[in-house]
Amino acid sequence: MGEQTHTQQILPEPDSKSQPETHKIESPAEPNALILHPTPPTSAVPEISHNPSKIPIRPPKIRKLSSPTPIPDANPSFSSSVTLTTTATLTAKNRRRSASQSSRALPPQIIKPLSINNEIEFALSHLRTADPSLIPLIDSHPPPHFETHDPSFVALAKSILYQQLSYKAGTSIYTRFISLFGGEELVRPNSVLALSSQQLKEIGVSGRKASYLYDLANKYDSGILSDDKIVKMDDRSLFTLLSMVKGIGSWSVHMFMIFSLHRPDVLPVSDLGVRKGVQLLYGLEDLPRPSQMEHLCEKWRPYRSVGAWYMWRFVEGKEGGSEGNAVEPLQRIEQQHQMQFMEPVNGIGNLG
């Protein structure tokens, strides 16, 4: 009675394809029989080990980085053509990427102002060859001169003060304006901000123009603009940035770039004098629109500023003006047109 007996049960041999792997203990009496281990008497639920290392974990998926083994194609020539096409496409993309990176690595293009030595001679030689219709104008007028060197802040402030005024009235107000600072060389953004609107009103500056001067001075004071940045900036970026200043529109930006910075390739498509000159030069029935101006004057690149200068002279001569009485071009333009500087921007494409 005290001896514990083992119950043997003969089970069919498990199917290795469908049953999980088990440990077998062969019985000495019957080698093919399985002896089951006794189950725990208190619970039928199998014991779960608390050792984390023995918990079965599903292995993570590993993304195969290597290209799959190519499957043999029934048509080797087709497979070869596809491979060559893919290789050519990748090569072209790499070349474009390399070219783009190389272009970004290049230093910015150096802009030569028209006031440096021999630049006007290069411009006139180019215009004679590119547009023979300009030859009579070039021969009958002296070459243009771009010699003003006012600081950019002073030039922009001056352009604001001359808005919608004759040259005489604008000069009078500007003279009183610089007297507030003790001279033109002392006109600074911080000194303009120190002036009250009443002080500006007393010298003839309207409240609207005063707000324009304050906005210009604030952009200098905050570092958005500076004389050094303006000189080094390309035409397109400069046009965009200056157009953000209140009271400065596309026409005034063009005039500033030509007569203050002496930029060589600026086409003021909204200027009445330049449009009239192009009309007379090419015998057009109507004034050319800005898009027509760009098309007609494309051959003048990269010296469209000089071409525009000759258009002003051309119209001046047709209207009976004389070279002896002609004033400096920027002053004459301001006096003749009396244009608003708050005009809509005609597009950055006019610059470059």
From TrEMBL:
InterPro entries: Alkylbase_DNA_Glycosylase/TA, DNA_glycosylase, HhH-GPD_domain. Coiled coil: none annotated. Residues 161-316 form the HhH-GPD domain. Residues 1-60 are annotated as: Disordered. Residues 14-27 have a biased composition (Basic and acidic residues). The keyword Lyase does not apply. GO terms for molecular function: damaged DNA binding. Residues 1-10 have a biased composition (Polar residues). GO terms for biological process: DNA repair. The keyword DNA repair applies. Keywords: DNA damage, DNA repair. Belongs to the alkylbase DNA glycosidase AlkA family. This is HhH-GPD domain-containing protein. It comes from Penstemon smallii. The lineage of its organism: Eukaryota, Viridiplantae, Streptophyta, Embryophyta, Tracheophyta.
